[in-house]
Amino acid sequence: AQSVTQLGSHVSVSEGALVLLRCNYSSSVPPYLFWYVQYPNQGLQLLLKYTSAATLVKGINGFEAEFKKSETSFHLTKPSAHMSDAAEYFCAVIPTSGNTGKLIFGQGTTLQVKP
Amino acid sequence: ETGVTQSPTHLIKTRGQQVTLRCSSQSGHNTVSWYQQALGQGPQFIFQYYREEENGRGNFPPRFSGLQFPNYSSELNVNALELDDSALYLCASREEGYPYNEQFFGPGTRLTVL
Fold this sequence. Notes:
Structural class of chain A: mainly beta
Helix content of chain A: under 10%
Radius of gyration of chain B: 13 Å
Number of helices of chain A: 0
Order of helices and strands of chain A: EEEEEEEEEEEE
Oligomer: heterodimer
Low-confidence stretches of chain A: none
């Protein structure tokens, strides 16, 4: 079954430092890939998605992610962290087979940004 | 444009009771999905409704059921509540068409089962 692994349940960076959140998927056929952000007591907001077009995907709030088929990875980056980036981040996939739009989420990574 | 709304915000029930959670989809969205997010976990897919029919289901028992209405709003019903049902329940809506169309999430309903 398709699964998503997010390496590191907690990541701490200083304000202005590079943000790198890791995500790997388990599938021989690349799925559709997503990154969502969840602020406390809120629902999820889509940051960006990969749907088999350009491998480098740019999203909102300065985030981007690169799809690497050889590494089955879709890591999320941001060059310079801002205090407002502190939140829970989820990587998710939708298998390309089937058509339910069922999102399969990773366990999440809590991003802490220190002043 | 109104986003996805859910009610109630919080709910406390006891074991064995039944609960109904409600979701209003974003305007123009006819596909609604429900997710369960346990504390410290990623959301898990419960089921999806498209034009009032269930067209996808996750690994949840039959006591989790749903409805979608002609205006595309939706309900999630859970019977015989168990302690492990305590979670944040998220509703998401999207336009029909590609499965990777953006899903817009509501703020969720926090269910506590005592």
